[in-house]
Amino acid sequence: MPLVRFVLLVLLALAASSGPAYAYIDGGSAHLIIQGLIAAAVGVIYYLRNPKEIWQAIKRRLKRDRS
After folding, report:
1. Tens-binned pLDDT, residue by residue, of the chain (67 aa)
2. Rounded to two decimals, what is the model's pTM?
C-alpha cells in the first residue's frame, strides 16, 4: 500500500507542477479517439455477452487456486 501512495503522490506533484502546453489536437487525433471508444465499447459488449458464464469461470479459478 505505501508504494501506491507514493506513486499517487508523485503523479499529483507532476500534475501540479506542469506548465502550459501550447498544443493543439489535429483531425487525425479525433479519429483515433473515436476508434478507441468504439473498440472499447465492442470489447465490453463481447466480454459481457454472457456474464453468468464469466462469473462461473472466475469462481472456478478462485476455487482451484485455493486448493
Report:
1. 688 889 999 999 888 887 887 877 777 888 899 999 999 999 888 888 888 888 888 888 888 766 5
2. 0.43
